[in-house]
Amino acid sequence: MKFVLYNLATAKEAWSDEVSGLYKKKISFFVPFDIQSLKAKKSAREDADFKRNEESELILKNINSDDYVVLFDERGSVLDSIQFSKKVENILGSSKKRAIFIIGGAFGVNEDVRKRADLKVALSPMVMNHLMAQAMSLEQIYRAFTIIKKIPYHNI
Predict the structure, then answer these.
(1) pLDDT, tens digit, for every residue of 127-148?
(2) Structure confidence by residue, pLDDT tens digits, 72-115
(3) Residue partners of 130: CB distance under 8 A and separation at least 6
(4) Are 33 and 64 in contact (CB under 8 A)?
(5) Exposure string (b/e) for 90-119, b if CB count within 10 Å is 16 or more?
(6) Measured between alpha carbons, how far is 117 from 57 in angstroms, rounded to an integer?
(7) Cα separation of 94 and 112, whole Å?
(8) Is residue 50 within 8 Å of 43, Cβ to Cβ?
(9) For residue 100, which of 131, 49, 148, 58 has the smallest C-alpha distance?
(10) 0.85 surpassed by pTM
(11) Mutual orientation of helices 81-92 and 130-148 as an angle, nearest 10°?
(12) Who contacts 85 (Cβ-Cβ below 8 Å, separation ≥6)?
């Protein structure tokens, strides 16, 4: 199974690239892993609905019917790291070829993406920028593998 993280981040910062590279390497030790930035057409910030729908359409175009889809969304389930690791373990045990993790755009995703998601997980009840959300997502995916493999990283 391959894991892929999709994001719609428009900002780029050196610290984020460094964190992403580090965790991409760490996660790839357990499973083939990639981070892909999806690029939607630019539109005015005032047109939130248009932007949300266009980005959601782009996300859906990049998902296969047999993918397991995890949406990081502030309205998703609140899980601790152990609970999240059990979800990841279940994904690994599924017959799916890919697990797709999604960080939506600045205005979130539309209902079509929410409906397509097999699992919706809240990273926090607080809103954060995409770079922080990506760093947190990557760390939790890595942490899940260390819990599953009983590697001393997660302290209970």
Answers:
(1) 888 999 999 999 999 999 999 9
(2) 998 999 999 999 999 999 999 999 999 999 999 889 999 999 99
(3) 7, 8, 9, 10, 11, 103, 105, 106
(4) no
(5) ebbeeebebbbbbbbbbbbbbeebbebbbb
(6) 14
(7) 23
(8) yes
(9) 58
(10) yes
(11) 70
(12) 143, 144, 145, 147, 148
Q: How far apart are CA 93 and CA 121, in angstroms?
A: 19
Structure tokens at 67: 């993918």
Kindly report the backbone phi and psi dihedral angles of residue 61, in degrees, each rounded to the nearest multiple of 5, phi listed first: -65, -25
What is the rounded CA–CA span in Å between residue 155 and residue 88? 18
* SS3 at position 99: strand
Q: Residue for token digits 């998601």?
A: 117
Dihedral (C-alpha) 24, 28, 34, 17: value to the nearest 10 degrees? 10
